[in-house]
Design a protein that fits this description.
35% helix; 8 helices; four-stranded mixed β-sheet; four-stranded parallel β-sheet
């Protein structure tokens, strides 16, 4: 009888242990597959026969540093971000990935040793197979706000991630223009001057591709003309977030708060100095812990939409990725 009850107790303990192990495995790995498997590339009747460009967008990963980050919090965040990212690219196989700034939380304060450690962690978490191209765009937490940026900080980031203040990226007639937001003050600084020259060149390329008979082949885009998609960390100028109505946008109280020019968005005069010849789709900013799609009130007549989740302590209600899709290109936002 005693042996019988001992056997029953042993089976119960084993069952409990297996349940705990299964629960830990599900929370550590399985949940990401369950959530992300619900996202699918859309099928839209308005799409052409040409294969759509599949793009993944991320923003504000804010990898913690040595000054503010607790080691346990840092470990948990990095684990979740790495698992979600790797699961997403395995399931959905995007062609292009753009990370729209603030890769690091303390990049502008980091010593060379800390910065190299940051880079090593980032490349481990966000490693991609050779078939996928990953592009990074610099944010203020990476190198500082406009007037605090030094040539050293800018060059250090650009060297590691092979970035420039302005870059044109084309894939099957879809054209992306990535921009260093901090170079858009247009005040003639060492960053702004180079960015303005590059923007003017890209603007001429777009004009030439739209009017093929007026330019040489060297000024044409790689592919047919289409309205470019602007990718940057800060939003272009607007008064507040009242025009933003995404499912995970900020509360009404937060959206009513006026933006500080040069801090929460680009200055109005800087926005107006953007090359005005082409309609663009401007994607993403992060405000008050909420990611939203940006619509440029001056130039945009099309809008892409995206919904997102992220791993920040002030937004516990969105612990796992979600997805929403544009009809002109296909993209998933983590």
């Amino acid at each position: 009888m005693i042996k019988y009850f001992s056997l029953i107790t042993l089976k119960k303990v084993a069952l409990y242990l297996l349940s705990i192990i299964g629960l830990v495995f599900f929370c550590a790995y399985g949940i990401f597959y369950v959530v992300l498997s619900q996202c699918n590339w859309p099928s839209d009747s308005n799409m052409t026969s040409e294969q759509p460009v599949k793009v993944m967008l991320l923003a504000d990963t804010h990898l913690l540093g040595t000054r503010k980050g607790h080691w346990l919090d840092k470990m948990i965040r990095e684990w979740e971000m790495g698992c979600a990212f790797q699961t997403a690219i395995k399931l959905h196989k995007p062609e292009l990935i753009f990370i729209l700034g603030d890769l690091f939380d303390e990049g502008l304060w980091s010593s060379e040793r800390d910065f190299n450690s940051y880079v090593e962690t980032f490349k481990y978490l966000f490693s991609v197979p050779s078939a996928i191209q990953l592009y990074t765009i610099v944010g203020n937490h990476d190198i500082g706000f406009h007037y605090s940026i030094t040539p050293h900080l800018e060059k250090r980031f650009n060297k590691v991630f092979n970035t420039t203040p302005v870059e044109l990226i084309s894939r099957r007639n879809v054209h992306f223009v990535s921009v260093n937001s901090m170079a858009m003050e247009m005040d003639g600084c060492f960053l702004c001057h180079a960015a303005k020259l590059k923007l003017n060149i890209i603007s001429k390329q777009l004009k030439c591709s739209q009017n093929e008979n007026k330019c040489s082949k060297t000024m044409m885009l790689d592919g047919n003309y289409s309205k470019p998609i602007l990718l940057q960390h800060f939003p272009l100028y607007r008064k507040n977030d009242m025009a933003c109505n995404e499912p995970d946008s900020a509360s009404l109280k937060e959206k009513e708060k006026p933006f500080r020019e040069g801090w929460d968005c680009l200055r109005k005069d800087a926005t107006e100095k953007y090359p005005p010849t082409h309609t663009v789709i401007s994607v993403l900013q992060e405000t008050q812990g909420q990611y939203i799609t940006i619509i440029n009130s001056i130039k945009i007549i099309e809008s892409g939409t995206a919904s997102t989740s992220f791993w920040r302590t002030y937004s516990p209600r969105l612990p796992y990725p979600s997805c929403k899709w544009s009809s002109r290109i296909q993209y998933i936002l983590i």
